[in-house]
Design a protein that fits this description.
Layout lengths: L1 H45 L8 H10 L1 H12 L1
Helix pairs in contact: 1-2, 2-3
Length: 78
């Protein structure tokens, strides 16, 4: 009986850690995406670049953040 309670406690602890890490990663990706999209939108609005926003560009910006914006800009110039 005690082993079952310990196992249940360990499952709950692992589940809590997985949820915390998942939420932290989602928060990081959301902040990177918002910052990158603001920069791309500003550069498009000012006429400095013309970057089309599609799924691939969005993924690059979401994972890369501000360096991802520069990668997308360089890829759009090719």
């Amino acid at each position: 009986m005690l082993e079952l309670l310990i196992l249940l406690f360990l499952f709950m602890a692992v589940g809590w850690i997985v949820i915390k890490l998942t939420l932290a990663i989602i928060k990081w990706l959301a902040l990177n995406t918002i910052a990158g999209l603001l920069i791309i939108g500003l550069l498009n609005f000012l006429g400095i670049t013309h970057v089309q926003l599609n799924l691939l560009n969005l993924l690059i910006v979401a994972i890369g953040g501000i360096p991802g914006v520069f990668i997308v800009i360089l890829l759009s110039l090719l």
